[in-house]
Amino acid sequence: MGVSKNFSNLRAAAFWAKDLLAGSRVKFHYNEIESSFANNHRNQESKLKTLLKHAAETTSFYANFKSATLSDFPLVNKLQLRNNAADFISSAFDQSKLVKQVTSGSTGTPLAIYSDAEKRLRNNADTLFFANKAGYKLGERLVNLKIWSTANQKSSRLMKMQNLIPIDVLRLDDKLLEAFCKTLVANKQPTHLVGYASALELLAKYIDKKNYSNNDLQIRSVIGISEGMTAVTKDIFQKQLGICALSRYSNIENGIIAQQQTNGKPTFEINSASFIVEIFKMDEDVLAHPGELGRIVITDLYNYAMPLIRYDTGDIGALNPNNHFELETIEGRKLDLIYDAKGNLISSYIVYKNMFQYTEILQYQFVQTGAKEYTFKINTEQPFAREQQLRAEFLKYLGDEANFSIEYVDEIPLLASGKRKKIVNTYHNKQS
Predict the structure, then answer these.
(1) What is the pLDDT of residues 324-353, one digit of tens each?
(2) pLDDT reading at 103 higher than 50
(3) What confidence tens digit (pLDDT) does each residue in 169-213 have?
(4) 197-210 and 174-186 helices, crossing angle to 10°
């Protein structure tokens, strides 16, 4: 353990030495984030004022918005950004020197966002800060469960320097999980997991099946990204390893927007040092009440190359009525909201609410196929004997007139992104 700790310290020292030679910009941003949280985000307003002035002076889209008040600026969505990208790019930057990031998200609509060097440094600092809040220490072993391809694969030398273990979720099966766990057992050192929540769920269930403890694995933190983490996953990591697994809310366009805390509360602490988060009503550009579900709208305080002001992410959530620097809940994509048989919007958490008790189900997916039509797909190794119980629980939320059927499948397929969606609304998407 002492040797691995020394190597971790060396890696951390090397990282900060490299940053020092480059002008200590990551350190500057890290300290600024730390100070912002320590001082209740008192400098957020001045950051916003500077951003709005810059956008009005250097972009054609915001040229007519000279106000320093956020409420005077319009909401923008993915379609506007995609069709009018040049209007959002600041004339203060040479576009050829900007980094282009392309995301399709759950909408399937490609969207290119440009960012400058300072924004990328800010994202690096955000990542370090929120990983540290989860328990990660720079230089310790980090396991990243996502799609790894030739486009994002790092050299073995760089991964060794960063103490990074990549796990490709497209090849995640019991054989790979067995090899991974044996590696952790054989080479004990503090280990941290970050990855798609569906991949972490498979790992958690494998750990539970093999009855591994943290004396075996030395896992210190777990962060789920891109998808909501189920209660089953959280419960296993707590029971088997004594770890409070966290969900993180982030996207490619902006970075880390919010993350749960290790106090076990379900709420998400907003990254108010780097973003302003607003919640708007579902179908009109009016602010929602605290606690009311609505559209998550982001103002990125650090992307000066392509200012994203009041950007409608397409995600759904609600602010904590008792703390406007927290999201009370994040419900996922607007395209995959659930409606009961009377057409009322209901929380997607009805799908996750009771699934912890059905340990015989390996995978599941809830699909709304019509106004009153619902299919629950399940994958089990053994015959499922509790159909009536499961059906009764869902009808309680969907309504007695709902047509709820159970379909047995061999596998819930992965999306091209490597994620495995637990909620799909094919009916509502067709109506939109």
Answers:
(1) 999 999 887 766 678 899 988 777 767 776
(2) yes
(3) 877 888 999 999 999 999 889 999 999 888 899 899 999 999 999
(4) 70
> Which pLDDT score, from 0 to 100, does residue 428 have?
66
Ordered strands of the 275-280 beta sheet:
164-168, 141-146, 191-196, 219-225, 246-251, 255-260, 268-270, 323-333, 311-320, 294-300, 275-280
Can you say how many angstroms the Cα of residue 36 is from the centroid of all Cα atoms in its chain? 22
The reported pTM is 0.82
Q: Is residue 114 part of a domain?
A: no
Q: Looking at the 3D structure of the chain, how many domains does it have?
A: 1
- DSSP-assigned states of every residue in 66-134: --S-GGGSPPB-HHHHHHTHHHHS-TTS-GGGSEEEEE-TTTT--EEEEE-HHHHHHHHHHHHHHHHHH
Q: How far is CA 370 from the centre of its chain?
A: 29
Among 322, 321, 229, 309, which Cα is nearest to 277's? 309
Q: How far apart are CA 173 and CA 421, in angstroms?
A: 18
Residue type (1 letter), 284: E
Domain presence at residue 349? yes
Full residue range of the structural domain in which residue 423 is found: 337-431
Alpha-carbon distance of 244 to 253, in angstroms, equals 28
Residue 158 is predicted with a pLDDT of 81
Give per-residue burial for 62-81: e unless 16+ CB within 10 Å, then b. Answer: beebeeeebeebeebbbebb
* b/e code 177-215 from CB counts within 10 Å (16+ = b): beebbeebeeeebbbbbbbbbbbbbbbbbbbbeeebeee
Q: How far apart are the first and last CA of the chain?
A: 56
**Closest among 253, 274, 269 to 51, alpha carbons compared:** 274
CB 317 within 8 A of CB 304: no
Q: Are 188 and 140 in contact (CB under 8 A)?
A: no
CATH number at residue 413: 3.30.300.30
Pair type for strands 191-196 and 141-146:
parallel
Cβ atoms 195, 169 nearer than 8 A: yes
- Tell me the C-alpha distance between 99 and 121, whole Å: 12
d(CA 191, CA 220): 6
Q: Is 304 helix (H, G, I), strand (E, B) or coil?
A: coil
Q: Is residue 9 part of a domain?
A: no
**Which comes out higher in pLDDT, residue 280 or 226?**
280
The percent of residues in the chain predicted with pLDDT above 90, rounded, is: 65
Give domain status of residue 356, yes or no. Answer: yes
